[in-house]
Amino acid sequence: MVTIKEITDKDLKSKITADVMGSLPEWFNPPESISEKAVIHRDFPFFAAYENDICIGFAALKIHNRYTADIYNIGVLREYHRQGAGHMLTAACEKYCTENGMKFLTVKTLDESAEYEPYNGTRAFYEKEGFIPLEVFTAFWDEDNPCLFLAKYLGD
Question: pTM value?
Answer without folding.
Answer: 0.96
